[in-house]
Amino acid sequence: MVKVENLDKRYGDFRLQVSLEIPDGTVTGLVGKNGAGKSTVIKSILGLIRPDAGRVLINGKDAAALSSAEKALIGVALADSCFSSYLKVADVIAILRKTYPRFDEPFFRSSCAAQGLQLDKQIKDFSTGMRAKLRVLVAISHQAELLIMDEPTAGLDVEARVELLDLLRQYLAENDKRSMLLTSHISSDLESLCDDIYLIHDGRIVLHEDTDTILSNYAILKVDEAAYAALDKSHILRAKKETFGYACFTDEKQYYAENYPGIVIENGSIDELILMLTGGKSDAWPA
Amino acid sequence: MLGLLEKDLRLTLTRKQTLLIFLVAALVMGMTMDGSFLVGYLTMLATITAVSTISYDEFDNGMAFLMTLPTSRKTYVLKQYLFSLLLAAAAWCVGLVLYGVMSAVRHSAAAPGDELPMLLAILPVLYLSAAVMIPLQLKFGSEKSRIVLFVLFGVAAILFVGVRNSFGGAVPSPDGLIMALSGLSPAVVLLSLTAVCALLALASYLCSVRIMEKKEF
Known about the structure:
The complex is a heterodimer.
Chain A: E1 2-11, E2 14-22, E3 27-31, H1 38-45, E4 53-58, E5 61-62, H2 68-71, E6 74-77, H3 89-99, H4 105-115, H5 128-139, E7 146-150, H6 158-173, E8 179-183, H7 187-193, E9 196-201, E10 204-210, H8 211-217, E11 219-223, H9 225-230, E12 236-241, E13 246-250, H10 253-259, E14 264-267, H11 270-277, E15 284-285
Helix pairs in contact in A: 4-5
Chain B: H1 2-13, H2 16-32, H3 35-51, H4 53-58, H5 62-66, H6 73-106, H7 116-167, H8 174-182, H9 186-214
Helix pairs in contact in B: 1-6, 2-3, 2-6, 3-6, 3-7, 6-7, 6-9, 7-9
């Protein structure tokens, strides 16, 4: 279980203030625009930066004070950092063998072969997608119980992305206690994998919701001016003026479906959630 | 620790061609120059090569990922000092063997055995260069650390000359120091030198640990 309690970190004008939890056996998504603070949260959990206030606990222990054995239970894939690109995959295997007591070499080798990662090729000669695959394979190669994945599918084509997500799904299914924190700009990845989602904006968590709830309860209502004036706005989170009238973002789709039979309802998605709740649609305003 | 050492060794071996050039240059020097120079030259190059693995770690923000491996920041620093020592010692041994081979080939009167105390002194003294470079590189990164190193040497030289000019005869000259040491037995000089270098390396290590502990990635 990962617990981020009142984490506070300042970088000049930017201030991160978040609390979140990743219970055992859960896949949690962290979404937000670039610069929202996703990577800072991940770095805090991994003990790479020191919070100004608050704390990060992993299985009840301070993240910065984990022992080697405890760190070996965490699998990490960072968006912009891995083993030196001058190394070959064969070198990485030799390093992992001496680094992780539970390194599953046969699995790693077979996965590399399946993903087309040549053992005798330097990482710097791999494409962006190949590097992303390698990062994920490294993270899931040593029986980690907690996976921290920062943009694991960035740069991958659809086929490779699906393969990689299947790998992650399979890995998590092998053990009920395995959990994962995932950031991604690709909402379909999150929708298909995450149990719950945190939306971060300007360093703060603006929404925490189960993925199923987002997909079933959140929606965009499309109404003309007259219908908007008559609309009960108590469940409208944001509204935006459009050419046809108003687009209204709600977390109570069913309520409007039942009470306004003729209303146009578009199912909500994580992309809409980000756009409407983080001001991505600049002229959207709280209803 | 073993994983990090393996990483450094493999990173070093990615530069096989450079290492080969170093070795060929050492062979040429061994034929034309003083044998002890050959040993010192190889040891120094090995020390620089070992320390430069930090640059590889820092390249492409790699240090962040390394710090997520099951190891501590302290262990990373310890590994850096250990790897530098191991590589310097290995190069010293290779240099000694080459010196011996060259002496035999050239039927030279000078053999490594005669100069052993001086040759042994090369290792701790040159290891000090790693002890200077490691904290600087951890603190300032590979590019800035070079500039800082030049500045430090400049300041040290100015201070030395300044103090010497100000206090005149009260400050012992390097020649005087050598004369004083030549009166002692080689074993005492060697042990004292090793002890001083070990203490300085320890101070450097503690400094590096402090730098690493404060670092954010």
